[in-house]
User: What shape does this take?
Amino acid sequence: AVALEDLKFTLQEVLDTFKSCLSEHKEVFLEHYVAGWRGLVRFMNCLGSVFSFISKDAVNKIQILVNHLNGENGAHYVTIQSMVKYELDSQLVDLTKRGSFPESGCRTLLRLHRALRWLELFLERLQTSTEDSNTSVMCTEAYNESLAQHHTWIIRKAAGTAFWALPGRATFFDVMNVGSPEQVMAVLGDTLPLISEVYQVTEDLYAQNNILELP
Ligand code: 1PW
Assistant: This one.
């Protein structure tokens, strides 16, 4: 039987998976990256059904990456570094316009990578917030500074609408399920540097390979 606790989201778990993402040579393990995202999706689903259209796309992207990992070329997908090298060397990526490879690991991960920046900015705001801070405003600001630039206006509109339905700060802290607001702050303090390091390593890799704008 599945224990209830297994279904419950905890921010601590997400922290732990992002902790195990980086190898000692600063390679990012795709399996753990995907596991971190699974946790984030569970978190989003706790925030209400309005957020489910947002998590749906993340779920699709996660599945595409899992399929690569479990596929016959899975060995090339162990780290993000090996994935990028393999797909580029084998010309499995659409570089300038959408075409034969709509599900390349590179373009799929890039979408999650951009969304991770949003999350980072949002959690940063949450960490420096006070009791009367508005989560919708924090979420919108973080979005406008990051992911919005990559979205069409229809998606920006839909996302904006979803943000207004976000629960308040107190509910957010409850959903994170780590304890008192002080404990949430402490876990956020531990989590943020990890997420931001994984983000930066990925960003540098994509920049070096000139694939930050994949269609
Ligand atoms: C409070 C927690 C915040 C975590 C946010 C992370 C989830 C971000 C997902 C936003 C998705 C909005 C709807 C989907 C849009 C897609 O078109 C877009 N996908 C993403 C992840 O930005 C681009 O993907 P596409 O259309 O080029 O395949």
